[in-house]
Each structure stands twice: as C-alpha cells, then as structure tokens.
Amino acid sequence: MPLPTNLCFAFILITFFGIFFSEVSNANEKNLVSRGDKVAAKQAYMLAQKLKWVTYQKVRNRVQNPILKKALLWYRLKSPNSGSNFGQIDGFMTDNPDWPQKKLMQIRAEQVMPPTMSDIEVLKWFKHQNPLTPNGTTRLAASLLKSGKKSHATKLIQNIWINGNFGAKQEAQFYRQFRQYMTRENHIERLERLLWEGK
Hints:
The chain has 199 residues and is mostly helical. It has 2 domains: 5-111, no CATH class; 119-196. The chain has 11 helices and no strands. It has helices spanning 5-17, 35-49, 53-60, 66-78, 86-95, 102-111, 119-125, 134-146, 150-163, 168-178, 184-196. α2 (35-49) packs antiparallel against α3 (53-60). The protein is elongated. The termini are far apart.
C-alpha cells in the first residue's frame, strides 16, 4: 500500500512531535482523526518513551483511524527492543515499501532474524539489499559460504570487520567464525578507524 504522504506524515507529526494541524488537505471523513484517537496516540507516545511496549500495543488497538493505527505500528517496529519480531517487521516492509526510514527498519529486522531461517531464506531476503549490521552480515556470509560463494562472502566479512561496530561478545564471536577470511591489512584498517573515531 503506497504511503498517503500528506495524511500519514501529518499523523506522525501530530502523534510524535506534538505539532498541531487544524486541517489536513484532501482529507475525507474516514481519514479524520477523532478526539479519542488523538488521546490514544498521545498515550501511546508516552508509553513508548517509557518502553512499555505491551501496553503501547493495547492502546494502539483502540485506535480507529487506519492510517494513524499503521503509523503507530510503524513506530513500534522501528524502535529498538520493542518486542517486534522478524516476521512483523519484514511483513510491514513488504506491504509498505514507500514508508519512511526503510533502512532503519531493515536494521531492526536483521537484529531479530530468527536462527530457524534457512540458508535459502536468508539468501532470498538479501537478494535485493545488502546487510546493514554485523548480525545481518554474519547470517548472509554464512549462507553464502555454504552455497559456495566464497568471494562474495569474503568481501562482506572484510567490509563489516573494517567498518562495522560490534558489541564485545559479538565481535569475539564474529572473529572466531570468520577470521580465516580476514587479512592483516583488514585488522590494520579496522584499528585505524577505531582510533580515528576514538573507540
């Protein structure tokens, strides 16, 4: 479903940035936001700030306006540690390719990719997009290696090792798993970047 730009961004701004719109151009009756929906949206915003996502979802379910309801779902899916799973995020991205912050949504999806995804499913998911996170790179590189695509996997491994930011445990695990595909020059470039960025 294409993003209804004027309406959706108006609702997002009303909901999350407190900007008042006395009128939304070209809005019809079914797209108007009721007083109850505005109250629910404000409540949802406050719950999101407190990371109370279970209650947030219950409040979202009370919203009647379909675009505002979808905007509230979008906000939860793109937020870290919101309890959203891979299927929910992937489904939203597929159904709403024109919605904003697509890369952030991909990052969230990669962070919660289930271990049960097969190599075929992983390769299919990354067919038209490159991984944006160490976790996504780990999954894709492992699947590529199993499918005999060593050159492609090596490029991904070396690039994320040089340019990626890992958690301590994640870094150690990634190194153990893929160190044979890294070069001395890769380690030097990574160290230089980290020193330059003060990390």
